Each structure stands twice: as C-alpha cells, then as structure tokens.
C-alpha cells in the first residue's frame, strides 16, 4: 500500500504496514453499527420531548441528509486513495499539510479520551446487575479485552464489530416490528394509532429554536460515520466495500432513526417525563425499554441494559481502532515519531495501540482523581466530529475542483459523490451552524467558563494548525499542482 510523505505518495516497505483483511461485510456492518448506539437507544426520546414528534423527525431527516452528502464525499476520496490516515491525509494533500497535522492529532486525542468515557459507562452498566462491585475493576477489564481484540489481527477487530453491530441491528428491527404492531393493533389491542402526533402542541413544539436544539443532538447521534474512511485502508476491496457501505447502509441507518422516532412518538406522548429521564442515563426510562415493557417483556430493562452495554463496547472498540490507525498514519506522514508507524507481523501498529490506551487510562484516572481535569479533557473532544466533517467537505470540494482543473474527467473516478458541489457546500455550512449553535446561551450571558468548556476543541485545532503552519511555512495546496495520484494497489 502507498503512504504519503508531506502530501506525496511513496511506496511502503514490505514491513511496517497494515494489512487489507477487512471483508466487505465487516466494513458494511462497522458503518451500520457505528451510528446505532446510545444516541438512538437513550437520547432519541429527549428529542421528541424538546421539539415534539414532528420537530424531531425534521431534525433527524435534515441531519441525516447532510451526513449522507458527507459520506458520499468521503467515499469518493476513500475509493480513489484508501488509507488509514483517511480524512487527515486528504486534508494534508488537498488543502494544507498543516490542516492534516491538526486534524490527525485532534482526532487521535478525541478517540483516546472517548474510550475512557466508554469504559466508565460500561462499568456503570455492569453495576446495574452487580451494584456492590467496584466500577474501576470492570472498566479496566473492559480495557484489557479491547486491547486484546485490537492487538491480534484487523480481521479479529472486524469480526467482533460485525457481531456487536448485528446485535444492535436485530434489536432495532424487533423494536420496530413490535412498535408498529402496537400502533396498528395487529398484535396488541386496542390499536394505539397516531393520536400522540396531534396531542396538545404536537407535532411541532417550541418552533424553530427547538428544532435547531434537536438538530445539534441529532448531529452527535451520527458521529462516527467517518470511520468508513479509516477502514478503507485495510479493506480487501475498498473500491467495492466503501461504496456499498455508503449506499446500502446509510439509508438503513436513516430509516432506523426516522422509523424509531416515529414509533416512540406514536406510543409515548411528548409530555411524558420518561423521555427526558432517558437522556440522563436511566435505562428503565429508555423509550426502547418502555415500549418492550408495554409489549409484555418483563425483563425489558435488563435486556436493554445488555444491548446498550454492547453498544458502548462497540464504541470503545471502534475508538481504539480509529485512534490507533490515525496515529500510525501520522507517523507514516512524518507528523508523529517514526516508531508509531511500526507494525507487528500481523499488521498491527502496536506502539500506536499502546500509546492510545495509555492516554485512555490516564483520562480514566483523571475521572477518579481529578474531576476538573477530566471535564476539560472530555470537553476538548466534544466538537471533534463536526470539525472532522468540515475537513472532509473542504477536502472533497478542492479535490474535485483540482481534478477538473488538471484535465481529468469525473467518469475516471471509481465512485462519484452525489450532487457536487451542492453536497460538500451544504455540509460545510450546516456543520459551521451546528458548531456555532452548541451553546448560544453562554454567549448571551457571557459565561466564559461555559464558552470555554463548550468550544475548547475549536481553539485546540486552530493552535495545532497555526503552530505547524508557522513552523513549517506550509501553504494552501494550489489546484494546478495538487498531487491527485491514487493508490496503485487499490483494486
């Protein structure tokens, strides 16, 4: 596989490279499972409570459309040049090397911190059944298991994610079948119908401000879709796997979210305090739990706790994989010490894996011994997903312009993004709106601490970008001289 050095492609040696052993079904299920998590199982109910059933549906549909454009943009880039560096490599090559440096390090730090949050959450979920056991033991045990999965082979990671994702997918399908049956009165009588969609102020509650608020929540629910780009570097056939993951999976994800919110809104009125309680982590108040209980499943809370635990484990597992591969790619691009680019004979960048888990462990320790430090660390990773999406939109827009400027035809590309240039421009604008609207109240009240906690990831990326740019005197890559060569080994 080819790697980049300072924006140029150079051949890898026979050693120290990752291996393309992820099957198409792995990539497809990783993409599907990446979006189905606690955002759907827990916080989807709160969106209905805040904006009403109509407002929640509009917000998720709009955000889903934006993410679809982003995924097609990433798909065009990833099929042309599949690399573990993904969007960070594209930022460096098609925009500015300093941007690739900033995005890569910020993404690595984001996932390393998020893994610490996930293992803490996993411990709380396990304590649901074993309340008298110390949580830190379970967190460390989860971290060890995830290390072993990622330390073996990439196919071990892929297979684990396949089955964890399948559990979530089956759960959502069963939920939808039972929920629709209750609405129509097919299996459960009397039929619930759609009365809750016109109950009191429904379907739209709180007007446009409420929809915007839910729009932000919906954005976080779709975080992780960019992992498709990272897996492209280890896919057996990225030219086939990536487009399939985008075209087949995204609409299913969108369908799952839209239909799930439709079912929840029909069965539970937006005024129910249970919907807000679920967002606070109360498994018993999860809309999925409530619906299963109404259908007669007595152990619904325990079942949903187990399913949400698999979601958290999947998130942590994917997070370790993504951050490890990003640090590996940074080393290959000379943005990180070279030893992070070394791999085992099975293609695992072990030094990068260990470094990632050390940061995760340090962050976890901070959650126990230094709550204030932990709060700022978690805040530093809060907006990373949206910032990454901005980078993807920029990279794709400039790549496609350079492609035409240098005399190529769009038909030469293996995969074509939809509605260019509208897609990346729309995604860029909406991401900026979402980032700016994260905490408007803090600006209205000039609460500097709140502003800092909410937006710290923005100055962090700017500091990395400007620091590298000033030190290395990088410039925006001209369209006429941009390196548009693809991966010679890509099928």
From TrEMBL:
Zinc-finger recorded as keyword: no
Transmembrane segments: 27-48, 54-71, 108-130, 136-154, 166-188, 208-228, 249-271, 291-316, 350-369, 375-399, 419-440, 446-468
PROSITE patterns: AMINO_ACID_PERMEASE_1
Membrane topology: Multi-pass membrane protein
InterPro entries registered for this protein in UniProt: AA-permease/SLC12A_dom, Amino_acid_permease_CS, APC_YAT
Keywords, comma-separated and alphabetical: Amino-acid transport, Membrane, Transmembrane, Transmembrane helix, Transport
Record's subcellular location: Membrane
Domain Amino acid permease/ SLC12A: 26-474
Chief localisation class: membrane
Pfam family of the protein (one): AA_permease
Keyword Nucleus part of the UniProt annotation: no
Cross-referenced PANTHER family: AMINO ACID PERMEASE, GENERAL AMINO-ACID PERMEASE GAP1
Protein name: Amino acid permease
Organism: Bifidobacterium polysaccharolyticum
Lineage: Bacteria, Bacillati, Actinomycetota, Actinomycetes, Bifidobacteriales
